[in-house]
Amino acid sequence: MLEIYKAEPSLVPHSYGCGQFSNDGVTTYFLLSDFIDMSEELPDHVELNKRITNLHRKSVSPTAKFGFFTTTFHGKIPQQVSWDSSWTSFYTRLLQDALRQDFGLNGPCPVLEKVSSRVLDKVIPRLLGVLESDGRSIRPVLIHGDLWEGNIATEKGTGNILLIDAAAYYAHSEMEIGMWRCERHAIHDDRFKSAYLEQMPKSEPTDEWDDRNRLYCVKMNVVHLAHRRDVKERKTYDCRFLLQYLKRSSERLTPNLVLSKTCAF
Protein backbone atom coordinates (compact mmCIF):
# COMPACT_ATOMS: atom_id res chain seq x y z
CA MET A 1 0.00 0.00 0.00
CA LEU A 2 2.84 2.39 0.79
CA GLU A 3 4.39 1.82 -2.64
CA ILE A 4 1.09 2.72 -4.33
CA TYR A 5 0.79 5.74 -2.03
CA LYS A 6 4.22 6.97 -3.13
CA ALA A 7 3.22 6.76 -6.79
CA GLU A 8 -0.38 7.97 -6.50
CA PRO A 9 -1.15 9.29 -2.97
CA SER A 10 -4.86 9.90 -3.47
CA LEU A 11 -5.54 6.35 -4.68
CA VAL A 12 -5.07 4.54 -1.34
CA PRO A 13 -5.52 5.42 2.34
CA HIS A 14 -2.35 6.71 3.97
CA SER A 15 -0.72 3.96 6.06
CA TYR A 16 1.20 4.93 9.20
CA GLY A 17 2.55 1.62 10.39
CA CYS A 18 2.08 -2.10 10.78
CA GLY A 19 3.21 -4.75 13.20
CA GLN A 20 2.64 -7.95 15.11
CA PHE A 21 0.95 -8.53 18.45
CA SER A 22 -0.47 -11.36 20.52
CA ASN A 23 -4.22 -11.66 21.05
CA ASP A 24 -5.07 -14.28 23.70
CA GLY A 25 -1.92 -16.16 22.78
CA VAL A 26 -2.61 -16.02 19.03
CA THR A 27 -0.10 -14.13 16.91
CA THR A 28 -1.83 -11.60 14.70
CA TYR A 29 -0.99 -8.42 12.81
CA PHE A 30 -2.25 -4.87 12.38
CA LEU A 31 -2.15 -2.07 9.82
CA LEU A 32 -2.73 1.49 10.98
CA SER A 33 -4.10 3.86 8.31
CA ASP A 34 -6.41 6.81 7.82
CA PHE A 35 -10.08 6.09 8.54
CA ILE A 36 -12.20 6.78 5.48
CA ASP A 37 -15.98 6.44 5.33
CA MET A 38 -16.43 4.44 2.15
CA SER A 39 -19.23 3.25 -0.08
CA GLU A 40 -18.82 -0.28 -1.41
CA GLU A 41 -20.61 0.40 -4.69
CA LEU A 42 -18.46 0.08 -7.81
CA PRO A 43 -17.42 3.51 -9.08
CA ASP A 44 -17.87 4.78 -12.62
CA HIS A 45 -15.92 2.49 -14.95
CA VAL A 46 -14.30 5.33 -16.88
CA GLU A 47 -13.15 7.26 -13.80
CA LEU A 48 -11.84 4.11 -12.10
CA ASN A 49 -9.69 3.26 -15.08
CA LYS A 50 -8.36 6.80 -15.37
CA ARG A 51 -7.02 6.37 -11.83
CA ILE A 52 -5.60 2.90 -12.42
CA THR A 53 -3.89 3.72 -15.72
CA ASN A 54 -2.46 6.88 -14.16
CA LEU A 55 -0.83 4.69 -11.49
CA HIS A 56 0.55 2.41 -14.20
CA ARG A 57 1.99 5.31 -16.19
CA LYS A 58 3.55 7.11 -13.21
CA SER A 59 5.07 4.16 -11.36
CA VAL A 60 8.69 3.22 -11.92
CA SER A 61 10.28 -0.04 -10.82
CA PRO A 62 13.27 0.79 -8.57
CA THR A 63 15.28 -2.00 -10.19
CA ALA A 64 13.79 -1.71 -13.70
CA LYS A 65 12.72 -5.34 -13.16
CA PHE A 66 9.48 -7.21 -12.48
CA GLY A 67 8.72 -8.14 -8.89
CA PHE A 68 8.86 -6.49 -5.48
CA PHE A 69 11.36 -5.85 -2.71
CA THR A 70 9.47 -7.96 -0.17
CA THR A 71 6.99 -10.83 -0.19
CA THR A 72 3.45 -9.65 -0.86
CA PHE A 73 0.24 -11.56 -0.21
CA HIS A 74 -2.70 -12.23 -2.50
CA GLY A 75 -5.28 -12.63 0.23
CA LYS A 76 -3.54 -15.00 2.64
CA ILE A 77 -1.36 -16.56 -0.08
CA PRO A 78 2.28 -15.39 -0.23
CA GLN A 79 3.40 -14.54 -3.75
CA GLN A 80 6.70 -15.43 -5.42
CA VAL A 81 7.71 -11.90 -6.42
CA SER A 82 11.51 -11.83 -6.28
CA TRP A 83 13.02 -9.53 -8.89
CA ASP A 84 13.32 -10.79 -12.46
CA SER A 85 14.38 -8.97 -15.62
CA SER A 86 12.12 -11.18 -17.74
CA TRP A 87 8.33 -11.01 -17.51
CA THR A 88 8.12 -14.50 -19.02
CA SER A 89 10.19 -16.13 -16.30
CA PHE A 90 8.63 -13.95 -13.57
CA TYR A 91 5.09 -14.99 -14.48
CA THR A 92 6.15 -18.63 -14.78
CA ARG A 93 7.43 -18.59 -11.19
CA LEU A 94 4.39 -16.67 -9.96
CA LEU A 95 1.93 -19.20 -11.42
CA GLN A 96 4.07 -22.21 -10.53
CA ASP A 97 4.15 -21.20 -6.87
CA ALA A 98 0.39 -20.54 -6.79
CA LEU A 99 -0.20 -24.04 -8.20
CA ARG A 100 2.15 -25.51 -5.59
CA GLN A 101 0.09 -23.93 -2.82
CA ASP A 102 -3.19 -25.17 -4.29
CA PHE A 103 -1.88 -28.74 -4.57
CA GLY A 104 -0.48 -28.49 -1.05
CA LEU A 105 -3.84 -27.49 0.37
CA ASN A 106 -6.26 -29.48 -1.78
CA GLY A 107 -4.19 -32.48 -2.82
CA PRO A 108 -3.28 -33.88 -6.22
CA CYS A 109 -5.37 -33.37 -9.32
CA PRO A 110 -3.84 -35.29 -12.26
CA VAL A 111 -5.77 -33.41 -14.95
CA LEU A 112 -4.92 -29.96 -13.55
CA GLU A 113 -1.31 -31.01 -13.03
CA LYS A 114 -1.10 -32.21 -16.63
CA VAL A 115 -2.59 -29.16 -18.29
CA SER A 116 -0.88 -26.65 -15.98
CA SER A 117 2.55 -28.20 -16.64
CA ARG A 118 1.96 -27.74 -20.36
CA VAL A 119 0.87 -24.17 -19.84
CA LEU A 120 4.07 -23.51 -17.85
CA ASP A 121 6.35 -25.29 -20.32
CA LYS A 122 4.70 -24.48 -23.64
CA VAL A 123 2.13 -21.70 -23.49
CA ILE A 124 3.90 -19.11 -21.34
CA PRO A 125 7.18 -19.13 -23.31
CA ARG A 126 5.26 -18.70 -26.57
CA LEU A 127 2.50 -16.29 -25.46
CA LEU A 128 4.56 -14.05 -23.17
CA GLY A 129 7.96 -14.59 -24.74
CA VAL A 130 6.85 -12.76 -27.87
CA LEU A 131 6.30 -9.63 -25.76
CA GLU A 132 10.06 -9.49 -25.20
CA SER A 133 11.38 -10.57 -28.61
CA ASP A 134 11.93 -9.10 -32.08
CA GLY A 135 12.66 -5.69 -30.61
CA ARG A 136 9.59 -5.63 -28.36
CA SER A 137 9.79 -4.81 -24.66
CA ILE A 138 7.38 -4.16 -21.81
CA ARG A 139 7.93 -1.77 -18.94
CA PRO A 140 7.31 -3.00 -15.38
CA VAL A 141 4.49 -1.01 -13.77
CA LEU A 142 3.15 -1.10 -10.24
CA ILE A 143 -0.14 -3.01 -10.08
CA HIS A 144 -2.58 -3.46 -7.22
CA GLY A 145 -2.58 -7.19 -7.88
CA ASP A 146 -5.97 -8.13 -6.36
CA LEU A 147 -8.28 -5.68 -8.04
CA TRP A 148 -11.82 -6.98 -7.60
CA GLU A 149 -14.84 -5.02 -6.41
CA GLY A 150 -14.21 -5.94 -2.76
CA ASN A 151 -10.96 -3.96 -2.87
CA ILE A 152 -12.39 -0.88 -4.61
CA ALA A 153 -14.36 1.79 -2.77
CA THR A 154 -15.58 5.36 -3.07
CA GLU A 155 -15.15 7.92 -0.30
CA LYS A 156 -18.49 9.27 0.85
CA GLY A 157 -18.81 13.00 0.54
CA THR A 158 -15.90 13.47 -1.90
CA GLY A 159 -16.49 10.68 -4.44
CA ASN A 160 -12.75 9.90 -4.41
CA ILE A 161 -11.97 6.38 -5.66
CA LEU A 162 -9.82 4.31 -3.32
CA LEU A 163 -8.09 0.95 -3.54
CA ILE A 164 -7.47 -1.21 -0.45
CA ASP A 165 -5.88 -4.56 0.46
CA ALA A 166 -3.24 -4.57 -2.28
CA ALA A 167 -1.16 -7.55 -3.42
CA ALA A 168 1.22 -5.22 -5.21
CA TYR A 169 4.24 -5.90 -7.39
CA TYR A 170 5.76 -4.55 -10.61
CA ALA A 171 4.28 -6.38 -13.57
CA HIS A 172 3.07 -6.20 -17.15
CA SER A 173 0.25 -3.64 -17.04
CA GLU A 174 -2.23 -6.13 -18.56
CA MET A 175 -1.82 -8.38 -15.51
CA GLU A 176 -3.89 -5.90 -13.50
CA ILE A 177 -7.12 -6.77 -15.28
CA GLY A 178 -6.68 -10.55 -15.45
CA MET A 179 -8.93 -10.62 -12.38
CA TRP A 180 -11.69 -8.95 -14.38
CA ARG A 181 -12.15 -12.04 -16.53
CA CYS A 182 -13.31 -14.08 -13.52
CA GLU A 183 -17.07 -14.50 -13.84
CA ARG A 184 -17.55 -14.65 -10.05
CA HIS A 185 -16.76 -10.92 -9.79
CA ALA A 186 -19.08 -8.00 -10.55
CA ILE A 187 -16.15 -6.21 -12.20
CA HIS A 188 -16.31 -8.91 -14.89
CA ASP A 189 -18.61 -6.41 -16.69
CA ASP A 190 -17.02 -5.72 -20.10
CA ARG A 191 -17.40 -1.96 -19.59
CA PHE A 192 -14.50 -2.02 -17.14
CA LYS A 193 -12.10 -3.84 -19.48
CA SER A 194 -13.10 -1.64 -22.40
CA ALA A 195 -12.53 1.53 -20.37
CA TYR A 196 -9.08 0.31 -19.32
CA LEU A 197 -8.06 -0.49 -22.89
CA GLU A 198 -9.25 2.90 -24.11
CA GLN A 199 -6.68 4.49 -21.82
CA MET A 200 -3.88 1.90 -21.83
CA PRO A 201 -3.20 0.43 -25.28
CA LYS A 202 -2.81 -3.32 -25.71
CA SER A 203 0.74 -4.61 -25.93
CA GLU A 204 1.97 -6.01 -29.23
CA PRO A 205 0.95 -8.39 -30.66
CA THR A 206 -2.50 -6.92 -30.05
CA ASP A 207 -4.31 -9.88 -31.63
CA GLU A 208 -3.09 -12.06 -28.74
CA TRP A 209 -4.40 -9.77 -26.02
CA ASP A 210 -7.41 -11.95 -25.21
CA ASP A 211 -5.21 -15.04 -24.84
CA ARG A 212 -2.88 -13.15 -22.50
CA ASN A 213 -5.88 -11.96 -20.49
CA ARG A 214 -7.04 -15.57 -20.14
CA LEU A 215 -3.56 -16.64 -19.06
CA TYR A 216 -3.41 -13.91 -16.40
CA CYS A 217 -6.85 -14.98 -15.16
CA VAL A 218 -5.50 -18.51 -14.60
CA LYS A 219 -3.27 -17.23 -11.80
CA MET A 220 -6.22 -15.47 -10.18
CA ASN A 221 -8.33 -18.62 -10.29
CA VAL A 222 -5.54 -20.82 -8.89
CA VAL A 223 -5.07 -18.44 -5.94
CA HIS A 224 -8.84 -18.56 -5.40
CA LEU A 225 -8.58 -22.35 -5.13
CA ALA A 226 -5.59 -22.14 -2.79
CA HIS A 227 -7.73 -20.25 -0.26
CA ARG A 228 -10.27 -23.08 0.08
CA ARG A 229 -9.60 -26.48 1.58
CA ASP A 230 -11.37 -29.56 0.20
CA VAL A 231 -12.21 -28.07 -3.18
CA LYS A 232 -14.38 -30.65 -4.93
CA GLU A 233 -13.91 -29.37 -8.44
CA ARG A 234 -11.02 -27.53 -10.04
CA LYS A 235 -11.90 -26.19 -13.46
CA THR A 236 -9.29 -26.52 -16.17
CA TYR A 237 -11.18 -24.82 -18.97
CA ASP A 238 -8.83 -21.83 -19.32
CA CYS A 239 -5.76 -24.06 -19.37
CA ARG A 240 -7.33 -26.30 -21.99
CA PHE A 241 -8.26 -23.28 -24.11
CA LEU A 242 -4.67 -22.04 -23.92
CA LEU A 243 -3.39 -25.39 -25.14
CA GLN A 244 -5.70 -24.98 -28.13
CA TYR A 245 -4.14 -21.54 -28.59
CA LEU A 246 -0.80 -23.29 -29.08
CA LYS A 247 -2.26 -25.37 -31.87
CA ARG A 248 -3.78 -22.28 -33.46
CA SER A 249 -0.38 -20.57 -33.37
CA SER A 250 1.16 -23.57 -35.21
CA GLU A 251 3.21 -24.83 -32.27
CA ARG A 252 3.58 -28.59 -32.02
CA LEU A 253 1.75 -30.18 -29.13
CA THR A 254 0.64 -33.81 -29.11
CA PRO A 255 -1.17 -34.56 -25.85
CA ASN A 256 -1.53 -38.23 -25.04
CA LEU A 257 -4.33 -37.57 -22.56
CA VAL A 258 -7.95 -36.70 -23.27
CA LEU A 259 -8.57 -33.81 -20.90
CA SER A 260 -11.84 -33.35 -19.08
CA LYS A 261 -13.10 -29.85 -18.25
CA THR A 262 -12.75 -30.39 -14.53
CA CYS A 263 -10.87 -32.42 -11.98
CA ALA A 264 -13.42 -33.81 -9.56
CA PHE A 265 -12.65 -36.07 -6.65
Percent in strands: 15-25%
Report helical residue fraction.
Answer: 25-40%
Multimeric status of the protein: single chain
Cα end-to-end separation: 39 Å
| Integer-rounded radius of gyration | 19 Å
**Overall pLDDT metric:** 88
Profile the largest sheet: 3 strands, antiparallel
- DSSP strand tally: 11
The helix-and-strand class reads alpha+beta
Indicate the low-confidence ranges by residue numbers.
250-265
What would you say this structure looks like, in words?
The protein has 265 residues and is an alpha+beta fold. The protein is built from 7 helices and 11 strands. Helix 2 packs across helix 5, helix 3 (87-106) runs parallel beside helix 6 and helix 4 packs across helix 7. It starts with a helix and ends with a strand. The model is unreliable at 250-265 (pLDDT under 50).
